[in-house]
Amino acid sequence: MGDNEVRARPPEGDWLGTPYLRFERHGSLAHCIIDRPERRNALTAAMYFGIRYAIDRVNADVSLAGLIITGTGDVFIPGGDLGADPVDDWGGPGLFGMDNVPFDAVRRSLKPVVSAVNGLAQGGGLLIAMLSDVALAVDTATFRAPELYRGIADMGYATYLPAQIGPARARDMLFTGRVVTAGEALEWGLIARVTTAERLMAEATEALEWCCRCAPSAFTEVKRAINDVYGTYDRMTMDKSIRGPEALEGWRAFRDRRNPTWVPDDLRLEGRL
Predict the structure, then answer these.
(1) Which of 21, 210, 211, 244 reaches 20 to 30 Å from 89, CA-CA?
(2) CA distances (Å), origin 185, targets 58, 121, 140, 153, 270
(3) CB within 8 A of 39, min separation 6: which ones?
(4) First to last CA, the chain
């Protein structure tokens, strides 16, 4: 029996369905830790689903009051793993789609979710941080939304970013794919606080503890009102784009470390965009 066959099984209890995620209990607080250093914490479909499951696990457990999401090393979450085989697919996540990702779960969680951004955050990692109740980042963290260079019309970003940082900055991030520093992210309102690597988990824990001291029903009502600022994203367009020819070419280009074919010859750069 292969190693993948041994390890690949659906989530159950505190097992999140993949060896690259850990669910830890610290009193009434839980931690979801992304730990896949060999791929720089890039998320497989099983990992995306596992983060969603962790949020559901906390909400269903009366002994838990809130969740911290963080990564290992100098990477929080760089987004999905576009260049490798699904090494931890247990059958369900292979049907990757918007139902399996954690973004709505973070936004709609009845219990507080805090992101402790320990380093690079882009793609799905940036969305998770943005939609958390409180997002803290180390001063060396960077943020990027490269979906348009991957052929994906990310309607979540198209909806959430303008609401959070304004249309001009949203266009800058999405259309130029620029890297945003932790200081800029704080100034723009992508995140709430910046701290040092040594202080990150202590400050994230303190923030979550204060969130968990809120009256639960009152907390969820206020959270709902705040989240209404985002509106709703165009799910049908998102699903169509993910399965479309541009996303396929974007994946191939990423895999092959080249520019997609839609880039004009005189604008091509070396390697991936």
Answers:
(1) 244
(2) 28, 11, 11, 22, 28
(3) 81, 84
(4) 39
Q: What is the pLDDT of residues 3-22, one digit of tens each?
A: 444 467 899 999 999 999 99
Laid out side by side, the sheet with 113-117 consists of 21-26, 29-34, 66-71, 113-117, 134-138, 193-195
* All structural domains of the chain: 3-198+214-258 (3.90.226.10)
What pLDDT, on a 0 to 100 scale, did the predictor assign at position 91?
Answer: 78
| Nearest in space to 49 (alpha carbons), one of 109, 110, 129, 103 | 103
**pLDDT tens-digit map of 149-160:** 999 999 999 999
User: What is the C-alpha separation between 131 and 13, in angstroms, rounded?
Assistant: 25
Largest CA distance in the chain: 59
Helix orientation angle between 155-165 and 167-176, rounded to the nearest 10 degrees: 140
Strand order in the sheet with 142-144: 75-77, 120-122, 142-144, 180-181
273 C-beta neighbours (distance < 10 Å), count: 16
Q: pTM of the predicted model, to two decimals?
A: 0.95
**Residue 94 in tokens:** 């292979």
CA distance 251 to 27: 42
Contacts of 59 (CB under 8 A, 6+ apart): 109, 110, 111
Phi-psi region of 166 (alpha: psi -120 to 50; beta: other; left: phi over 0): left
CB half-sphere exposure, 253, CA atoms < 13 A: 24
Q: For residues 75 and 120, is the Cβ–Cβ distance under 8 A?
A: yes
CB-based contacts of 243: which residues, under 8 Å, 6+ apart? none
